[in-house]
Amino acid sequence: MATAAQWIQGARPRTLPAAIAPVLIGTAAAYELQSFRPLNAILAAVVALLLQIGVNYANDYSDGIRGTDEDRVGPLRLVGSGAARPDHVKWAAFGAFGLAMIFGLILVVITQAWWLILVGIGCVLAAWGYTGGKNPYGYMGLGDLFVFVFFGLVATLGTTYTQAGQVSLPAVIGAIGTGLIATALLMANNVRDIPTDAAAGKRTLAVRLGDRHARESYVLMLAVAILLVVVLAPAKPWMLIVLLLIPACLMPAWLMVNGRKRKSLIPVLKQTGMINLGYSLLFSLGLILTHGF
Question: What are the distances in angstroms from CA 254 to CA 216, 224, 250?
Fold first, then answer.
């Protein structure tokens, strides 16, 4: 029987900034459009967090029953370690998805944007299909694309739309940026697991690219995400404040390129999560300063 602490660890708290970051950016973009809606922002954050927790438990369950986590290096896996029964972890995932759908439905009712129900269903199906089902797309190297789309574009632009009823160029740039950083986090995780994933038949993008190119892609994603704000600088000079994040990227980038031991890459997950949170805060601050308090 898993302890409460193990259930919390199994939810992978280090990945949660990836859920909060797009909501912050999307809300700041709505603020710039003079359409800040606090309740809508809170609901969007709750939905994003629940989906992230749900996908973490779902991955734990699906990888665990396939044996992918038997020789895992890194955070605790509930099923793979034997700390929790597989069916308990599966129902924890379903519970998180169910709550996410309830709060999402409340947000849809408030905004009257009924078509967002389809987006919500798509989010849940994508969350489960990453490693679940007969043909999980995470095992085919498509996980990175789906993370970029759902934890970048959908989460950010959806947050802006549910408050402003429209999206803007800053919202799009921010969505691309936070999506790339979230994808970089997944890449860091998958580079660490290349040996075990390859042995288990899990053909992640990191496995397909190979160790060297996968590591290089991590650095490239961080660089593009941060430098992309230059596009907004001519009209919004305050957006260059995001460049202050560059020093924070140097250590994880160095570890990704030079850390040969699998355990040496574990800190990169936390560092990348904090980079995403820092990116969202600085990006949002830039928009707020541009618009004025």
Answer: 10, 17, 6
Task: Name which of 142, 136, 267 is nearest 192 in CA terms.
Answer: 267
Cα-Cα-Cα-Cα torsion 28, 30, 33, 38, nearest 10 degrees, comes to -100
The C-alpha atoms of residue 113 and residue 167 are separated, in whole angstroms, by 14
Q: Which of 291, 278, 279, 280 is nearest to 236 (CA)?
A: 291
> For the chain, which residues score pLDDT lower than 70?
67-75, 292-293
Between CA 212 and CA 257 the distance in angstroms is 8
Residue 133, Cβ density class (10 Å: 0-12 exposed, 13-18 middle, ≥19 buried): exposed
Helix axes 266-291, 17-32, angle to 10 degrees: 10
Q: Are 16 and 52 in contact (CB under 8 A)?
A: yes
Q: Would you say 285 and 293 are in contact if contact means Cβ atoms under 8 Å apart? A: no
SS3 213: helix
Task: Please give the Cα distance from 82 to 1 (Å, whole number).
Answer: 9
Distance CA 188, CA 184 (A): 6
| Tokens at 221, concatenated | 């994603």
DSSP 8-state assignment for residue 133? S
In terms of Cβ atoms closer than 10 Å to its own Cβ (0-12, 13-18, 19+), residue 61 is: buried
